[in-house]
TrEMBL record:
The chain crosses the membrane at residues 52-69, 90-111. It comes from Bradyrhizobium retamae. It is an enzyme of class 2 (transferase). The active site is at E63 (proton acceptor). Mn(2+), Zn(2+), Cd(2+) and Co(2+) support activity to lesser extents. Belongs to the bacterial diacylglycerol kinase family. Substrate binds at A24, V25, R26, E27, E28, R49, E63, S92. This is Diacylglycerol kinase. It is found in: Cell inner membrane. GO terms for biological process: phosphatidic acid biosynthetic process. Keywords: ATP-binding, Cell inner membrane, Cell membrane, Kinase, Lipid biosynthesis, Lipid metabolism, Magnesium, Membrane, Metal-binding, Nucleotide-binding, Phospholipid biosynthesis, Phospholipid metabolism, Transferase, Transmembrane, Transmembrane helix. It holds the Pfam family DAGK_prokar.
């Protein structure tokens, strides 16, 4: 039970730090909060609504991992390093792919709601 409590505290601390230090995390949390009522309006089934919210939550997860990579890379060196730049770019690309996936889920659900599919 103590281990679970400590893990919960670490989670809270990590999320709080990310919220304080990263604009993208704050924006994605707002998107997540907006996705709940919008998913209720757009989703045609309960499962589709869950999928829509989960797609936005997935973007947040990837952003948190990208932020962790960037913070670690910045801690290693503040000098310009080609390899570290490539690692940061890959993290950014992961966020981009997650955003694309989420956008496609939402477009598909919207088309489904409008009867186009």
């Amino acid at each position: 039970m103590l281990r679970l409590w400590r893990a919960t505290i670490n989670t809270r601390n990590g999320l709080a730090f990310a919220i304080r230090s990263e604009q993208a995390v704050r924006e994605e949390l707002c998107a997540l909060a907006l996705s709940v009522p919008l998913a209720w309006l757009i989703g045609t089934t309960t499962m589709r609504r869950v999928e829509l919210v989960a797609a936005v939550a997935f973007v947040l997860v990837v952003e948190l991992l990208n932020t962790a990579i960037e913070k670690l890379a910045d801690r290693l060196t503040t000098d310009h390093d080609l390899k570290i730049g490539q690692v940061k770019d890959m993290g950014s690309a992961a966020v981009g792919v997650a955003l694309l996936m989420a956008g496609l889920f939402w477009l598909f659900a919207l088309a489904e709601r409008m009867g186009a599919i």
